[in-house]
Amino acid sequence: MTSGDRPGDHGPSAPAQAVAARIPAPHGASESAGVKLAAPILGAGFVVVFACLFVFGTLAEGVRSQEVFALDQFATPFLHRFTSPALDAVMETATFIGSNVVVVPAFVVAFTALLVVRRRREAVLLAMALGGSLVLNGVMKPLFHRPRPQLPWAHVLPDYSFPSGHSMNSMAFFVALAVVAWLAWGRRAGVAAMMAAIGVSLLIGVSRIYLGYHYLTDVVGGFSAALLWLAVTAGAIAAGDRARSRWWRRDGRGVRPE
Predict the structure, then answer these.
(1) How far is CA 216 from the centre of its chain?
(2) Looking at residue 26, what is its pLDDT?
(3) Most exposed among 106, 120, 188, 257, judged by the fewest C-beta atoms under 10 Å?
């Protein structure tokens, strides 16, 4: 006699387990499991990125104000040596591509298309990547209130300088879009999309220095924050996937671990 046949034993019998295995887990419960695991990772990641930016920005501003950090003083005049009408047009175009006037509508189109084709996970990845970048950048600029470069050939913009919003948001959005392409169409398409995303983002960052709108450290800070946030976002998505997978396997067997 097995343990399941003993009188008074209330454990699931073999037929009951077989029936339970055919009953799918409630969709809302699996989603809840993923959200519960992903949310703390996102929150912790946001704090880590914020702290990294704070440390980097404080050091960058300190050395710049003491005129020790030579790269900030060197990069813009160096790039400006190569100025020409044709290069000006290229850099203006790159800056325009990295602006919210282009990035936000492009996100809306991509996000909607992903929902239409039922790629919800990729849509969430894209939304978290750009949304987090916009929020982080919006918090950082007034916190540091770092003045823009004041150069004879550049128009001084009214907002603050660190970190570069064009650099940060374009890196977050275009690289996230490349990850979506990788997931949707495989490694070959993903590698090509990733190379294009990084190339466009770097060009946008260089354009901000060339046009005199940002210091080098503003652009590097924006890129660093975007990549950190992308890593946090990808980790949260992966953690949510693992949580949902564990929930389905656990509930599908009809046995819950202690």
Answers:
(1) 21
(2) 45
(3) 257
Asked if 167 and 218 count as a contact pair (C-beta separation under 8 A), the reply is yes
Is 179 within 8 Å of 198 (Cβ atoms)? no
Q: Are 64 and 215 within 8 A, CB to CB? A: yes
What's the DSSP call for residue 46?
H
Cβ count within 10 A of residue 80: 16
Distance, CA of 175 to CA of 167 (rounded, Å): 12
Alpha helices (H) in 145-215, listed in sequence order: 165-185, 187-210
Output 23 or 10, whichever has higher pLDDT.
10
In angstroms, rounded to a whole number, what is the distance separating the alpha carbons of residues 129 and 138? 14
In the structure, what pLDDT confidence band is assigned to residue 18 with cuts at 50, 70 and 90? very low
Angle at 111 between CA 90 and CA 93, to 5 degrees: 5
Phi then psi for residue 117, to 5 deg, are -90, 15
Alpha helices, H only, 7-144:
14-21, 27-65, 70-80, 85-97, 100-116, 120-144
pLDDT tens track for 71-85: 777 888 888 888 889
